[in-house]
Amino acid sequence: MVSVSPYRIAIYARYSSDLQNPSSVDDQISLCRRLIAGQLATDPDHALIFSDAAMSGATIDRPGLTRLLEAVRSKWVDLVVAEGLDRLSRSLKDIAAIHETMSYNGVTIWTAHEGRITELHIGLKGTMNSLFLSDMKARIKRGHRARIVAGYAISACPYGYRIVRGVVDDKRRNVNGVREIEEEAAQIIRRIYQEFADGRNVSQIVDGLNRDGIPAPSGRTWMRHTLVGSPRKQEGILRNPIYIGQLVFNRSYVVRDPVTNKRVSVPNPEAEWTKVDVPHLRIISDELWAAVRENYRGRLKKKDEPEPEPRILNSHNQHALTGWIKCGWCGGGKQIANDSRYLCSTHRYAKKCKNSRGTREPVLMAATFDALYTRIKHGPAFRPHLIQAFASELERSKELSKVEADLLARIGRLLDAIEHGIDTESATQRVLDLQDQLKHARQTIQIEAPPILPDEATIRATLARAVQSVEMARDVKRTRRMLKCLLSEIVLTPIADNRCGETITLTLREEGWPDFWRMVSSGMARPGQK
């Protein structure tokens, strides 16, 4: 039996798919508690619990695992218990990093399957888990290819089709991936192909669809990329071979960036694609398809032609203010366009708004930060609002402080009693027990402590420095994280009786200051924090 302080044990549980039973986490926790009860001289109910539901072990970016590693670095944990090493990670690189972090902080890993984890387990089991992950991906791809060959779809239902529910095979099992033509949308697709074959360009077709009030596949306005899509992946209505009754699989594959840990899509060579004829899904004739293909070279803009070299798709390229800018005339969204100006999307694509004016991104960024500084310096007091927002946490902190004070008093009384001659052995043991409880109470206070609220002047100065650090860093990710807390919307309205220019009406989220204060208190808004 190993003796470990009951408040320094952590249990980690995870299941990887939303198709699995969510009770899997509870089952893993119960198994770990039985392991603790059988192997360790401590109460398993006092162990800290960390878990992740429906999250793959292929990535280390999991909320529960992140909190566990933070607890490890903060010296709140001596032992981590899990069902198996694969619950922590299936990536060889990530499990090695996790083990290194825990070893550096003096933390041991125990699992029900492998026992005490050593470097040997990391090397062998990590490699096995990584191979399992690769094998699972290969089996999934093989299964998808088999479904495609059988004529069933495995991707999202494209425009022009609908999903058929309730289909069963001869063994009474539900069959997924069955599609059928949605005739109303199919007529729109035939119109798009015919107009392009007759000589209209993509912009004219888009304008016509929007002018006639036909909703796009997204339910909003039609845009150019809806028709032309990605040349390398043959996406877009004018490129998708599904409309001539051909299912295509393996156009691209997904990899995870080892630095950012983000998933990115990489196109496969066309020779590696799997193509299967599904004549019952044909919407466009071969003649019309060939006419559109013939017109591509001379009539699609050069930027729509396939790239000479493969490149990674879906790379992050988002602007800090995207999603917050609105048009003051029609209420629609404004998106970044030429010369870094935010232009009305309804005007650009549907021609239903006359606001053709735009405001440059640097001007809007400067106005946003000016508004934040003005609110911090001259706006209503922050402290009463923050106190109200953190009231429950402050109450909990006060309760824990009372517990801490009570334990200190009881320890003091016992020490006084020892000095006056009571049974030293039993009193000393009781003091040690109370000291363990005191240690746990203080750790809980540290973990659950609400953000510190100084005086009003200090709060304003701290918020101003935090906003300034975000502005100076010019990091899109950090800026957007701050704006999600503090920015409601920016409305751009053309200035009356002027040929150019727009007024900027900026609305802040007063209810978001407590969340931003949490960010500031935890260091997320400081320089260098991502």
TrEMBL record:
InterPro entries: DNA_bind_recomb_sf (IPR038109), DNA_bind_recombinase_dom (IPR011109), Resolv_N (IPR006119), Resolvase-like_N_sf (IPR036162), SSR_resolvase (IPR050639). PANTHER family: DNA RECOMBINASE-RELATED, DNA-INVERTASE FROM LAMBDOID PROPHAGE. The lineage of its organism: Bacteria, Pseudomonadati, Pseudomonadota, Alphaproteobacteria, Rhodospirillales. This is Site-specific recombinase and resolvase superfamily protein. Residues 8-174 form the Resolvase/invertase-type recombinase catalytic domain. Residues 158-302 form the Recombinase domain. CDD domains: Ser_Recombinase. One of its GO terms (molecular function) is DNA binding. Pfam families: Recombinase, Resolvase.
